[in-house]
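User: My advisor asked me to double-check a structure prediction for Inositol 1,4,5-trisphosphate receptor-interacting protein before group meeting. I don't want to rely on an old file, so could you generate it fresh from this sequence?
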Amino acid sequence: MQGGIARVCMVVAAAILNHPSLFPQENTTLPEQDEDLIARMREHEERLEMEQAKLEKELSQMDSKQEETSSEEGYSWYFWSALSFVIFLTIEMCRVDFTEAEIRPVEDEDVFSETGSITSRMMVLDKDILSNFCDKCTYAAAHENWRVREFVEGFADDLLESLRSVCDREVDMEVGDFVGIGSMFESWKVCKPLMCDLIVPFSPPDLHSFQYHLWCSPSSNIPPDMQGCGKIKVTRFGENEEGCLCGSANLGEDMLCLLHSRNDAAGVSHSPDELLCSKNTHFLAKDQVMRWFQISVTKAWGRISHKYDFEVTFRNLDAAGALKIRFRSGKVIVMNIIPVVQLEDTDAYFVSHFPSGCDSCPDPYWPLSFAIYERNLLKHFAKRLPQNSCHLHCLQIVTFLHRKQSGLTGKCALTNYHLKTTLLHLLLSKKPSAWGAESMEHRLQDVIGFLQRSLQEKRLNHVLIGNSKVPKEVRVPEMIRKVEPINLFRSLVLQRELYAATVKHFQEMLRNAAVLLQEYTPHLSNGGLHHSLDESL
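Assistant: Sure, here is a fresh prediction for Inositol 1,4,5-trisphosphate receptor-interacting protein from the sequence you gave:
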C-alpha cells in the first residue's frame, strides 16, 4: 500500500513539475522556441500516459489482492484511484484555462494585420475630458433637441393634414399619422444639423390591399443578397378569392354577390402605374411611391405656406420628404418624412429609403425597418440601468468621433446605425450594473472594441433579427426572432476597397479621438458651447 501511495505522489509531482505553464521561457513567441516547447510538451504527455498506464495496472493488481484480504483496505484503494483521477483532471483543466488566458490578449490586440494599427485598449481618453464633454455637450443638446422635436411634431401634423386634403381617396394612397424614429427621438442626438426622422405609413386606395413577401418566406423567391427585404404586391379586393365571379363575369342588374357589395363590383379598375407599381408588375415600386409623395408634399406645403414665417425646400430631390426648414435667423432644421408600409399588424415597416443615404435595394424590393422595436429596446434598458447610466453617453461620443472623422477623410461604409447596433449588442450581453456613470471609460472601450472585432471579422449581426437574447417584453415578431441572423457588414465581404477605406477611417478615428474631444473641451468649459459646436458640427 505504501508503495502505491508513493507511486501516485511521484506521478502527480512529475505532472506538476513538467507542466509547460509552470516554468515558461522568455521570448516564447519566437518560432524556434515554440517548436521546442511543443516537442517537450508531447514528450511529457507521453511520459505521463505511460506512468498512468503503469499506475492503473498496479492499482488493479493490488485491488484484486486487497479484495481477498479485507474490504476496508479495498475501499482505501478505490479512494486513492479516484483521487489520482481527480488530480490528473484538474491539471488538464488548468492547462486549458491557462492556454486560453494567454491566447485572448493576443486576439484582442492583433485585430488588424496592418502595421501601426491601434486598438481600443491603446486609445487613452482623459476622464475629465470625457466627463466635461458629456456635461457641457450632451445635456445642453438634450434641451435644444426637445424644443426642436416639439416644433417638428406640430409642423408635421399640419403638413400631413394638408396632404390628405389634396389626395383623392379613390385614386391616391391613404396617408396615416407619423411616428418619430432615430437619434432625435431616442435622446442620443448630439451632432449638427438638427435632424428629425419621421416615418409616415400609407395604405392602398379603396378596394385594394397589400400582400407581403418577406425574404424569409418559404416561397418568396427573393435573392440571397436581398436579406432583410421584401416585396409588396398590390391586389384588388376579392381577386384572389376562389369561387367568386363577380369581378370577371356580368351577373346582371338583378344578381348580387354575397361576398362583395354592388359598389365593390363596379369599382374602377386601376392600372399598375396608377397603383405605383413597377412596370408590367403588380409589385409596389419605391421610385413611384417617392415621386407621388414628393408631388403631394409640394402641393400640401403650397396650401399652408402662408401660415409660416420660414422657408421650406427639398434638400434632396432623390429622397421624398427630405425637407430643409430655414428660419430668418439663419437656423436650419432638417426633416426626413419617409413614406413606409406597415407589415401587417406589427411595428415593422417597409421603408422607401433610408435618411442616412445608404445604398438602397432596387425595385421592387423594400428594406424592412425595425426602428420602433429598437426604440422600445432602449426604453426597456432605461428602466433597468442605474440612474445616470453611461450607455447613451458612450453612443454620443462614438457618433461624434465618427462624424468628425468623416469630415476629415470622407464617408465610408460605417454608419451611425452600426454604432447603435454595437451598443445594443453590448447592452444585451452585460449586466445592468456595469453601465453606471463611473464606468463610462470602460464601457466606451467595450463599444469600440466590439466594433473593431466586428470589422475584423466583417460581420455585425442585426440586433433583432434571429437574436434570441432580445427580451420578450420588446415583442419582436416570432417569425423575425427565429430566422437566420443578418450580417450588416455583408458589403464589406464583397467589396475589398470599401473594406480597406472603412478600416482606415476607423483607425484614424481612434488615433484622433483624444485630439477631437480635447479640441472642443476648452470652448465648452468657457461657456461658448452653442457657438463653438454650431460652427464645428
